[in-house]
């Protein structure tokens, strides 16, 4: 058994406490950088696409997630915190997005989609939908989603490329890879 003097104990305790505080501070800085990057990315996407809403659907569990960030043209389009229908997003759809699927729907009323998906999109005032996966080395981190709420919209190749560029920006950022 080792016996420490009170001064050695105080120095060790102080160093341990400082290291713990530094780790907390480092994590906080990374999260703040991540949040700023996501906000900037989705704001730029909404403005360049002239969409009613661009959101990040973040996966916090095995195919369970929620809208953690959004940029909207009007507060009436806010879906912040929305979790989506649990029975619609399953392993089949996750596998498609893990493989890089991009889904562009010009008009949810005319597209062949599951009823639960259509009902969910209607509940969020969506008329046209564009979804791009955010893929990191660990897997599917989230989905970048653009919505046109007022009318159908044919998404152009340029629209899709903008969304893919935004997804890559997020997926390769150290503040996201470290969070």
Question: Nutshell version of this structure?
Answer:
The chain is built from five helices and five strands; from the N terminus they run αββαβαββαα. The protein has 179 residues and is α+β, with helices and mostly antiparallel strands. Strands 2-1-5-4-3 form a five-stranded antiparallel beta sheet.
In words, what does this structure look like?
The chain is an alpha+beta fold and 179 residues long. The chain contains five helices and five strands; from the N terminus they run αββαβαββαα. The protein has helices spanning 6-49, 91-98, 115-123, 157-172, 174-177; strands at 53-61, 64-72, 103-105, 128-136, 139-148. A five-stranded antiparallel beta sheet has the order 2-1-5-4-3. β4 (128-136) and β5 form a beta hairpin. The longest helix is centred in the first third of the chain and has 44 residues, at 6-49. The protein starts with 5 loop residues before the first helix and ends with a helix.
Keywords:
179 residues, 5-stranded antiparallel sheet, elongated, alpha+beta, 5 strands
Q: The biggest beta sheet, please?
A: 5 strands, antiparallel
- Inertia-based shape: elongated
Query: Which class best fits the helix and strand makeup?
Result: alpha+beta
Helix content: 40-55%
Order of helices and strands: HEEHEHEEHH
Helical stretch count? 5
Q: N- to C-terminal separation?
A: 40 Å
- Could you name the ranges where pLDDT drops below 50 across 5 or more consecutive residues? none
Number of strands: 5
In percent terms, what proportion of residues is strand? 15-25%
Radius of gyration (CA) equals 21 Å
Mean pLDDT: 90
Strand numbers in spatial order across the main sheet: 2-1-5-4-3
């Amino acid at each position: 058994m080792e016996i420490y003097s009170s001064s050695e104990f105080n120095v060790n305790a102080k160093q341990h406490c400082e290291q713990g505080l530094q780790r907390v501070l480092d994590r906080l800085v990374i999260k703040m950088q991540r949040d700023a990057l996501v906000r900037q990315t989705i704001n730029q996407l909404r403005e360049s696409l002239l969409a009613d809403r661009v959101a990040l659907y973040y996966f916090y569990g095995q195919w369970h997630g929620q809208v953690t960030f959004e940029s909207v043209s009007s507060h009436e389009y806010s879906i912040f915190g929305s979790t989506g229908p649990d029975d619609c997003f399953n392993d089949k759809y996750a596998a498609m997005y893990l493989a890089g699927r991009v889904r562009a729907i010009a008009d949810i009323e005319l597209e062949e989609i599951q009823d639960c998906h259509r009902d969910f999109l209607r509940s969020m005032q969506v008329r046209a939908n564009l979804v791009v996966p955010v893929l990191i080395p660990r897997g599917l981190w989230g989905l970048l989603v653009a919505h046109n709420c007022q009318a159908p919209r044919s998404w152009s190749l340029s629209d899709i490329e903008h969304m893919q560029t935004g997804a890559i920006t997020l997926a390769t950022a150290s503040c996201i890879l470290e969070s």
